[in-house]
Amino acid sequence: MILYLDTSALVKLFVEEAHSPEVRTVARLAGTCATSRIAYVEFLSALARREREGLNAETAQGLRESFEAGWLNLMVVEVNRGMTIRAAGFARVHALRAYDAVHLACAQEIQEAVPELVFACFDERLNQVAQMQGMRVL
After folding, report:
1. Is 94 exposed, middle or buried (0-12, 13-18, 19+ CB in 10 A)?
2. Each residue's pLDDT tens digit, 101-115
3. Taking the domain 2-137, which CATH number applies?
4. What is the value of pTM for the model shown?
5. What are the boundaries of each domain within the chain?
6. What pLDDT is recorded for position 75?
7. CB neighbours of 95 closer than 8 A, spacing ≥ 6?
């Protein structure tokens, strides 16, 4: 099984928050964890926001280091022209935010090759659209 992590799920691997234990358990059970190249920027942006909002600088640095090490173990999906076209369609038809649509297009690209994909996301709308596309969601 491949576990596709959008950024909301990826954060839960490294930052303790609601549903972190669930995501970590499924990630350990998955043969492979995957995400889009854009999640790198999204994760570090989310961490920087938390730091601006009061997260201790030392804690933030530790989380960055943990994330950088963990990133090397992920299957990273590069965004190509076909995925951007697919994502634009998802955004238009399903009223998704741009990067949510890109995550969905990346997950669908994997699912076409490996049907045993589970989509991990903590956005209700994105999960609904993923299910409409035939994906199992966490």
Report:
1. middle
2. 999 999 999 999 998
3. 3.40.50.1010
4. 0.95
5. 2-137
6. 98
7. 125
